[in-house]
Write a structure and sequence with these properties.
The complex is a heterotrimer of chains A (470), B (392) and C (309). Chain A has 470 residues and is mainly alpha-helical. Chain A has 19 helices and two strands. In chain A, strands 1-2 form a two-stranded antiparallel ribbon. In chain A, helix 9 packs across helix 15 and helix 16 packs across helix 17. With 392 residues, chain B is α/β, with parallel strands linked by helices. Chain B has two domains: 203 residues, 3-Layer(aba) Sandwich (Rossmann fold); 131 residues, Response regulator (Rossmann fold, 3-Layer(aba) Sandwich). Chain B is built from twelve helices and 17 strands. In chain B, the strands form four sheets. A seven-stranded mixed sheet of chain B has the order 9-8-10-11-12-16-17, with helices on both faces. Chain B has a five-stranded parallel sheet with strand order 4-1-5-6-7, with helices on both faces. In chain B, strands 13-14-15 form a three-stranded antiparallel sheet. Chain B is elongated and about 85 Å long. The N and C termini of chain B lie far apart (78 Å). Chain C is mostly helical and 309 residues long. In chain C, a hairpin with a 2-residue loop joins strand 2 and strand 3. Chain C is globular. Classes of the chains: A mainly alpha (470), B alpha/beta (392), C mainly alpha (309). Chains in contact: A-B, A-C, B-C.
Chain lengths: 470, 392, 309
C-alpha cells in the first residue's frame, strides 16, 4: 500500500500508538502484580540502593526518584548561566568554563536516570510482566474467597511498600506523612467544593480547629508543657487516646462549620465563599488571641504520635468513609443539589439538610487531618492557617479533579511532591507550579481526573483475558 | 513486545549500568553546612541577608582552600534551603538537610515561628543548629542541640524600658505591635512587664495591636494620642515602622518613637525618611562608626550587594564564624556524621567570649548567648549612630 | 472616647474605606458581569502600584533632566492616568490567559487560574525587583490641618475626593454609555445576550480593563498614603476587598462602594472601641451577622449562579 500524506499518522496518533505499545504487555497486570513489583523495587533499594547510587556518582540514595537531583543540576546550570550573563564583556572568556561546568553537571544525569531505571522502573515492570499469571491467579483466588480479605491484603502490601520506601531517610518519612495528611484534606474539601459544588474558603480554619483541638488534648493530658501545665496522665496512654484527640479535633471543626453553614445555606449563591473566608480570618484571629494556647507563639511539643502507621491508617479510613459517603444516597442527593437545587428539591431531596450534613462531614475530616498535621509537624501556630494554606488546598483539589476520589489522591500527592521536588529551583518554584496549574486548568478545566467513581474492590480484581491463562 | 525483548533490554541496561559504575566515582564527602532561610514568603529580605552572609563566608573558606581542621583542609559545601517563611516547610527543610544532605550543622531558621519547630527536628535528630535571628525563648529551651546568636526578648525588653526611663524620665508608655507575629508580640509583653515593674501598674496607658500586612494604623494611633502616652514603643519590622512613624506624625504626634532590633535595616531610612530621624532603638550592633572587623564586614557586604547589611546579615556572619570555630575546636573530622555532629555540639557549648561583630558571646547552658545590646540613634544623615551600650 | 477621637476616626475610616471601595469595584464588576471571582485582582492592585512607581520615577527623572517645572499634582494626575492605562492592559492579558479559555468551565476553575496568576505576579515581582521594599516618591507636599483637634492632611482629602470621582465616573460610564449598557445586559443574562450581538469577548476584556484601571488608581493612592511597596502588599487587601465586593451585592456598583467604605468603618471603629487585638475577630463577626440578615448583600437581588456552572 502506498503511503500518502493523509494516511501518515499524526503526532497525536503516534504518541497514542507509542503509549499503547508500551502499555500493551502490561494490560493484564493486576494491581497485585504492580504492588509486588513495587515491593521488589523498594527492597532492592533498601539493600543495594546505596552501593548502586555511589557507583553512579551520587553520594547517597536519591530522595524522590531522582527528580530532586535533576532539578538541582538544572538550577546549578541556570545560576551559572545568570552569572555568566552578568558580566557581558567577559562572556567569551568565561564561556569555556561555563560549558565545562554545564557538561560536568549534565554528566551526573545519566547516573540518576540509570539509578531510577535500575531500581524502580525495571524491577517494577519486569516483576509485573513476569508474574502476570501467578498474580492474576492469586488475586482471583483471594477475590473469590473473601473480597474484603483481598482488600485488606492489598492495603497491607501498600503499607509495607511505603514503610520500606520511607525507611531510607527521615526526609522521605516526613514527606510521605504530609502527603497522606494532605490527601485527607483534599478529599474533605472535594466533598464540599466538588461533590456539593459550593466554593468554600474555610478549610484552613477547620484544619486549625482540628489541629488545636487535638494538640490541646494530647499536650494538655500527656506532656509537661510550659503553656498548658503538667501532664495529667502518663505518656504511655497517649498512643491509645490519640484517636479520641483526633475525633475531638474533628468534632470541634464540625462545630465551627455550623457557624458557617447557618448563615450561608439559606440561599444558593456565592455567599458561602465570603462567609467561609470571614470564618477563616476569625479562626486565625481567635487563636492569635488565645493566650492559653500560646497565642501567636504557637503550641509545640506534641508527642510523636502521628507515626507512619497511624497516619496511613487514618488516611485509609478517611478515604474509605468519605468514598462511602459520596456514593451513598446522601452523596447522590448532594450531586443532585449541585446540579439543580430546585429540581432536587422537587425530587424530595431535603436540600438544606443535605448541604448541612455534607459541610459538617467535610469539616470533620479536615479537623482530623489538622490533628494529624499538628502531630506530624509537632508544632502549630495560627499563622500557618492563613491565605497561603488556602491557596494550597484549593490548588490540590482543582488540580486533582472535582468529584473524584482518585483525583484528590493524585492532586494532593502531585502538588506536595512537586513542592518538594522543585525545591532546588528556590524562588522559581513559585513560577513553575502556578504555570503548570494554569496549563492543567486550561486543558482540563475540572482537573486531571474528575467525575469518577472510586471502587477499590473492582480495582483489585484479577485482569484475566476472557480466553483463560496468558 | 514479548518477554524476550524485555529480557534483552534488561540485559543491555544491566551491562550499561556496570560499565558506567566502573567509570563513575562517588563524590568526596566534604563538610556540609545547611542554611534554612526564608527566601520566599513574608520576609524574603531576611532570607537574602542570611544567604549573602553565608555565601561571603564560603568565599573566604574557598579562597583559603578549604576549612582547616586539625591541620587538614576540608572542602566546604553550603546547602541553602528555602523555608518559604512557613513552619511546616521549615520542618521539612531541616529534615531534608539532616537526613538527606547529611549536614554537619544547620544555620537558621530566622524567625521564631520557623525556628521553634525546626529546632525540635534538629534536637530529635541530634544535629547542632544555630539560629541567627530567633529571639523566642522556646527555640532553645530544653534543647541541648540548639543554639542562637541574638539576645533574647526577656533581655531586650527591660533594656529599652530602662533606657527610656533614664534618658527621658517618662512614666507613661504606649505600645503598638503586631498581634499575629510572635517576635513583636513577645517583645511587647516583656517591655510592658519591665515598664510596669519600674513605673507601677497601669503605666502602659495604651497597649494597641494590629495584624501582619496591615498598612493603616490610624485607629490605634488615634487611641494612643488620646491616652496621654509620652512615647510609643513599637517593636516592628522596618517596613511597618516607616508607616507607623509617618502616620503618627500626620496625626500630630511629636513625641519620641522607640524601637527594637527589628528596626535595624538599611532599608528603614529609604522607606521612612525624615519621620524616623532622631528616634532611638536597641540593636545588636551600630553600623555607623563601626571599627575593625565589623567595619570590614560591612564594607565588603556593601560593596558586593549595594547596601549596608541588616542585623540578620551581621548575625549570620557571626553564626558562621562561631560554627567555624566550633568545627575547628573539634580537632578532627572523622567522617562519621553522628560523631562529628556530637563533637561540634560540644565545641559550641564550650565557646567562651567569642569576639563577634555583634559583640562578645558566651553560650549559657540553654544555648543562648550572653551579650550586650546597643542603643542607637538615627542621625539626621540617616545613619544609625552608637548611643550607649547595655550589658547584662 | 472623646468627640475629637471619634471625628478623627471618621476621617481615618474614610481614607481606608476609599481603598477597599476602589478595589472592591474591580472585583464587583468582574463578578457582576461574568460571575467569576477574579482572585488575581489583589495582585493587579500591587502591579498597578508598582507601575505607578515607575511612571512617577520616570516623570520625575524627565523633569529633572529637562528642567521643566511641573507641579506635583500634575505629575500625580499624569502618573495615575498612565498607570491606569498600563494596568488595564495587564488586566486584559490576565483575562486573555487565565479566564477566557475557561469561560465555559466551572467557575471555580477560573478562580484557581486567577489565584495562580496572582502568585506568578508576586513571584515575578520578587524575581525582577528583588526582596527590597520600595518607597513611593512623595509627589505632593503633605500639609496637616488641625480642625477642632482633628488632624486632616491634604493627602487624605485628595484620596477620598479622587476615589469618589472615579466611582462617579464609573457609574456614569455603566449607566450612560452603550458599552455600559452592554455590560449591564451581559450581567443580566450571560447566556442569551451574546446571541443578541453583544461581543462577549470585548465586554469581558472591557470589564477587566476597567476593574484593573481602578485597581491601579487605588494602588497609587494607597502608595501615597502608605508609601511602602512590597510584592505581597495586595494579598490581604485584595481578599478583604473581595469580601466587600460580595457584601455589596452582585453587580451593584453602589453596593461595592458602600460595602468598601463600610468595611473601612468597621475595621477602624472596632479597633477604636474594642481591644485592638480582637479587631479581625469582631470585624468579621459583624460581617457574618450582616449577611445573616441580608443574605443577598447590601444592594443585591436574589439570583442563582446556576447558569454559569
Amino acid at each position: 500500500m502506498a503511503v500518502t500524506s493523509d494516511t501518515l499518522p499524526t503526532n497525536r496518533e503516534r504518541v497514542g500508538t507509542l503509549a499503547a505499545r508500551i502499555s500493551e504487555p502490561f494490560v493484564l497486570v493486576p494491581i497485585l502484580g504492580w504492588l509486588v513489583g513495587a515491593l521488589v523495587a523498594v527492597l532492592l533499594e533498601q539493600f543495594i540502593g546505596l552501593p548502586i547510587a555511589r557507583a553512579f556518582g551520587m553520594v547517597r540514595i536519591p530522595a524522590l526518584f531522582g527528580i530532586l537531583i535533576f532539578f538541582e543540576i538544572l538550577s546549578e546550570i541556570f545560576v551559572a548561566f545568570v552569572e555568566l550573563l552578568q558580566v557581558p564583556s567577559m562572556i567569551l572568556m568565561q564561556l569555556p568554563d561555563f560549558l565545562l561546568f554545564t557538561l560536568e553537571n549534565l554528566a551526573k544525569l545519566p547516573g540518576v536516570i540509570l539509578y531510577v531505571l535500575l531500581i524502580y522502573i525495571l524491577p517494577i515492570s519486569l516483576v509485573a510482566r513476569l508474574t502476570v499469571s501467578p498474580s492474576n491467579w492469586v488475586a482471583g483466588k483471594l477475590f473469590n474467597f473473601r473480597s474484603w480479605l483481598s482488600v485488606l491484603l492489598h492495603i497491607a502490601l501498600m503499607y509495607l511498600i511505603l514503610h520500606i520506601w520511607t525507611d531510607v531517610t527521615d526526609y522521605r518519612l516526613l514527606v510521605a506523612r504530609l502527603i497522606l495528611v494532605s490527601v485527607i484534606i483534599t478529599l474533605s474539601l472535594n466533598v464540599i467544593n466538588g461533590y456539593m459544588g459550593e466554593f468554600s474558603c474555610s478549610h484552613p480554619g477547620f484544619i486549625a480547629l482540628g489541629a488545636y483541638g487535638a494538640s490541646v488534648f494530647t499536650v494538655g493530658l500527656f506532656v509537661n508543657d510550659n503553656v498548658l501545665g503538667t501532664a495529667l496522665l502518663p505518656e504511655t496512654l497517649a498512643r491509645f487516646m490519640f484517636p479520641i484527640g483526633l475525633i475531638l479535633g474533628g468534632l470541634i471543626a464540625s462545630l465551627g462549620a455550623i457557624l458557617v453553614a447557618i448563615p450561608s445555606f439559606n440561599t444558593r449563591g456565592d455567599y458561602l465563599a465570603i462567609i467561609s473566608l470571614a470564618f477563616m480570618f476569625m479562626v486565625k484571629s481567635l487563636f492569635e488571641n488565645l493566650e492559653v494556647f500560646g497565642g501567636p507563639r504557637g503550641l509545640g511539643g506534641q508527642p510523636d504520635l502521628a507515626t507512619l502507621p497511624t497516619v496511613f491508617f487514618w488516611t485509609i479510613v478517611g478515604i474509605w468513609i468519605m468514598n462511602n459517603f459520596v456514593r451513598s444516597t446522601l452523596g447522590k442527593a448532594l450531586n443532585a443539589v449541585r446540579d439543580g437545587e430546585t429540581a432536587a428539591d422537587a425530587m424530595t431531596v431535603n436540600t438544606r439538610r443535605t448541604k448541612f450534613t455534607a459541610f459538617l462531614f467535610g469539616a470533620f475530616w479536615a479537623g482530623v487531618a489538622g490533628g494529624l498535621f499538628a502531630h506530624v509537624i509537632r508544632y502549630v501556630n495560627p499563622g500557618t492557617f492563613g491565605l497561603q494554606m488556602l491557596a494550597e488546598v484549593l490548588a490540590m483539589v482543582y488540580f486533582g479533579g472535582l468529584n473524584s476520589v482518585q483525583g484528590s489522591i493524585v492532586g494532593a500527592t502531585s502538588i506536595q511532591l512537586l513542592g518538594e521536588a522543585l525545591r532546588p529551583l528556590e524562588i522559581y518554584k513559585w513560577l513553575v507550579i502556578p504555570l503548570l496549574l494554569i496549563i492543567v486548568m486550561i486543558r482540563r478545566p475540572t482537573g486531571l481526573i474528575s467525575f469518577t467513581k472510586f471502587d477499590f474492590t473492582s480495582l483489585i480484581k484479577p485482569k484475566k483475558e476472557p480466553g483463560g491463562e496468558v | 513486545m514479548n518477554k524476550r525483548t524485555l529480557l534483552i533490554i534488561t540485559g543491555l541496561f544491566l551491562i550499561g549500568a556496570f560499565i558506567v559504575s566502573g567509570c563513575a566515582q562517588a563524590a568526596q564527602p566534604a563538610i556540609v553546612i545547611g542554611v534554612n532561610a526564608p527566601l520566599t514568603g513574608d520576609i524574603p529580605k531576611v532570607g537574602e541577608g542570611s544567604k549573602f552572609s553565608a555565601e561571603m563566608w564560603l568565599e573566604d573558606i574557598n579562597a583559603a582552600g578549604g576549612l582547616d581542621v586539625g591541620g587538614t583542609k576540608y572542602p566546604v559545601e553550603i546547602v541553602i534551603e528555602d523555608n518559604e517563611s512557613k513552619a511546616e516547610s521549615a520542618t521539612k527543610a531541616n529534615t531534608k538537610l539532616i537526613t538527606q544532605d547529611e549536614v554537619l550543622v544547620i544555620v537558621g531558621p530566622q524567625s521564631s515561628k520557623q525556628a521553634v519547630p525546626a529546632g525540635g527536628v534538629a534536637n530529635d535528630n541530634e544535629t547542632p543548629m544555630v539560629s541567627p535571628w530567633s529571639t523566642n525563648p522556646n527555640t532553645t529551651l530544653d534543647r541541648p542541640w540548639v543554639f542562637r546568636t541574638p539576645f533574647l526578648d526577656p533581655f531586650q525588653g527591660p533594656v529599652i524600658a530602662n533606657f527610656v526611663t533614664d534618658e527621658f524620665g517618662f512614666s507613661k508608655a504606649a505600645v503598638l505591635y503586631d498581634v499575629a507575629s510572635d517576635y513583636p508580640k513577645g517583645l511587647a509583653e516583656f517591655f510592658k512587664g519591665a515598664w510596669e515593674d519600674v513605673h507601677g501598674a497601669d503605666s502602659v496607658v495604651a497597649y494597641e495591636s494590629f495584624t501582619t500586612k496591615d498598612a493603616d494604623f490610624s485607629a490605634q494611633l488615634t487611641k494612643i494620642r488620646e491616652s496621654g502616652a509620652e512615647f510609643i514603643f513599637t517593636p516592628q519590622y522596618y517596613n511597618e515602622v516607616a508607616l507607623i512613624a509617618q502616620q503618627a506624625h500626620e496625626l500630630g504626634w511629636d513625641a519620641p518613637i522607640v524601637g527594637s532590633d527589628s528596626w535595624g535595616s538599611a532599608e528603614l531610612m529609604n522607606l521612612c525618611g525624615d519621620d524616623c530621624k532622631g528616634q532611638f532603638f536597641s540593636t545588636h550592633y551600630a553600623a555607623a562608626g563601626a571599627t575593625g572587623a565589623t567595619k570590614e564586614f560591612i564594607d565588603r557586604y556593601n560593596e558586593k550587594h549595594g547596601y549596608v547589611p541588616d542585623d540578620v546579615g551581621a548575625l549570620t556572619w557571626d553564626t558562621m564564624l562561631i560554627i567555624q570555630k566550633a568545627i575547628q575546636d573539634c580537632g578532627t573530622i572523622t567522617g562519621d556524621i553522628a560523631t562529628d555532629r556530637a563533637c561540634v555540639r560540644d565545641a559550641l557549648a564550650q565557646i567562651k567570649d567569642f569576639d563577634g561583630i555583634t559583640g562578645k558571646m558566651t553560650f549559657t547552658e540553654e544555648g543562648d548567648p550572653i551579650k550586650c545590646a546597643v542603643i542607637v540613634q538615627i542621625s539626621d544623615a540617616g545613619e544609625f549612630e552608637f548611643y550607649q551600650q547595655v550589658c547584662p | 472616647m472623646s468627640l475629637e477621637g471619634f471625628l478623627q476616626n471618621i476621617v481615618n475610616s474614610l481614607q481606608l474605606g476609599s481603598f477597599y471601595a476602589l478595589i472592591a469595584l474591580g472585583y464587583s464588576m468582574v463578578y457582576g458581569v461574568l460571575l467569576l471571582f477574579n482572585f488575581a485582582h489583589g495582585d493587579i492592585f500591587m502591579v498597578g502600584a508598582y507601575i505607578g512607581l515607575f511612571v512617577a520615577t520616570a516623570i520625575l527623572a524627565l523633569v529633572a533632566l529637562t528642567s521643566i517645572v511641573l507641579p506635583g499634582w500634575l505629575i500625580l494626575v499624569l502618573t495615575i492616568l498612565a498607570a491606569m492605562l498600563l494596568t488595564s492592559f495587564v488586566g486584559i492579558t490576565v483575562e486573555r490567559i487565565g479566564y477566557r479559555p475557561l469561560r465555559n468551565a466551572p467557575r471555580a476553575s477560573a478562580a484557581i487560574t486567577g489565584l495562580m496568576i496572582g502568585i506568578i505576579l508576586e513571584t515575578g515581582n520578587l524575581i525582577i525587583l528583588g526582596a527590597e521594599n520600595y518607597s513611593f516618591p512623595a509627589l505632593i507636599e503633605t500639609s496637616t490641618y488641625q480642625i477642632a483637634g482633628v488632624s486632616i492632611t491634604n493627602k487624605k482629602i485628595m484620596i477620598v475626593v479622587v476615589a469618589l470621582l472615579l466611582m462617579l465616573a464609573l457609574h456614569q460610564f455603566v449607566q450612560r454609555t452603550k458599552w455600559g449598557m452592554a455590560m449591564r445586559a451581559t450581567a443580566y443574562d450571560f447566556a442569551v445576550v451574546p446571541l443578541m450581538g453583544v461581543p462577549l469577548n470585548q465586554i469581558a476584556a472591557l470589564t477587566f480593563a476597567l476593574g484593573s484601571g481602578l485597581a491601579a488608581s487605588a494602588g497609587i493612592l494607597f502608595s501615597l498614603a502608605y508609601p511602602v511597596l512590597s510584592p505581597y502588599m495586595g494579598i490581604t487587601f485584595g481578599w478583604k476587598a473581595f469580601v466587600a465586593a460580595i457584601l455589596g451585592g452582585r453587580g451593584s456598583i453602589l453596593g461595592a462602594a458602600v460595602a468598601g467604605f463600610m468595611l473601612g468603618f468597621i475595621e477602624i471603629f472596632v479597633a477604636a472601641f474594642f481591644p485592638s487585638t480582637l479587631r479581625d475577630l469582631i470585624a468579621y463577626s459583624i460581617i457574618l451577622v450582616i449577611l445573616v440578615f441580608r443574605p443577598h448583600g447590601l444592594f443585591g437581588e436574589a439570583y442563582t449562579a446556576q447558569l454559569r456552572l
